[in-house]
Inverse folding.
């Protein structure tokens, strides 16, 4: 997909639009995440993996162990984003904005998210958040990612996407995607999710609405990656708000 023309972008957009977004919204409400299988082909995944070593593509590289974030490395793309990453970010956004605005209504928030990614990014940039946040993450054996939230400034979009680019049980073992949910006056709930190559998962950035006895509550969400037992695992992360 890297370097290919508009036809590849249109095909990728069509795949995203073809998902059952009503069911995705129900899954987010029911279990706190939505899985979108077979979003990318193995060829498309390999092309994205090959970008990892191209230093000119990135604005920043983070050694996770140095910062006590875990063990591994991630790289934030510079502008212009690779065409396929830009397409994914732009095509996902309107579907997720509709879900996010429904959440805002339940939570009694007056904030609403713009209908297009371009309009939302203008708000980010007006708040001083101008650095792109899509990234590639790489883990080797014994690597992991501590539970965290991806917040980079005052403006934050409530949902984000991760796409597994490697083949479980062939390229790596272990390394499940982790979600931790904390509800008011309850113990936290954890879930480990084994993604397949090319599969995307949609999950909350910071919180999600859950229904309680007295109305809607804010469940706090964190995500991470469990310890990799062997091999190498690469993931594409699509975050919609830019960073300060």
């Amino acid at each position: 997909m890297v370097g290919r023309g508009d036809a590849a972008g249109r095909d990728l957009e069509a795949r995203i639009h073809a998902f059952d977004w009503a069911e995705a919204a129900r899954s987010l409400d029911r279990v706190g995440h939505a899985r979108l299988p077979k979003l990318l082909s193995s060829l498309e995944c390999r092309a994205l993996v090959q970008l990892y070593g191209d230093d000119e593509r990135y604005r920043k590289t983070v050694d996770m162990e140095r910062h006590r974030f875990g063990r591994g490395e991630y790289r934030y793309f510079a502008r212009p984003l690779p065409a396929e990453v830009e397409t994914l970010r732009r095509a996902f956004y309107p579907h997720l904005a509709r879900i996010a605005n429904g959440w805002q209504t339940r939570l009694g928030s007056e904030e609403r998210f713009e209908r297009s990614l371009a309009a939302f990014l203008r708000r980010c940039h007006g708040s001083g958040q101008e650095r792109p946040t899509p990234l590639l993450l790489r883990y080797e054996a014994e690597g992991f990612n501590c539970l965290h939230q991806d917040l980079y400034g005052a403006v934050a979009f409530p949902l984000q996407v991760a796409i597994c680019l490697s083949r479980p049980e062939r390229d790596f073992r272990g390394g499940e995607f982790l979600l931790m949910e904390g509800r008011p006056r309850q113990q936290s709930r954890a879930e480990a999710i084994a993604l397949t190559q090319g599969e995307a998962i949609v999950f909350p950035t910071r919180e999600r609405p859950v229904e309680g006895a007295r109305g809607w509550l804010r469940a706090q969400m964190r995500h991470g990656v469990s310890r990799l037992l062997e091999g190498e695992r690469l993931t594409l992360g699509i975050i919609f708000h830019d960073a300060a």
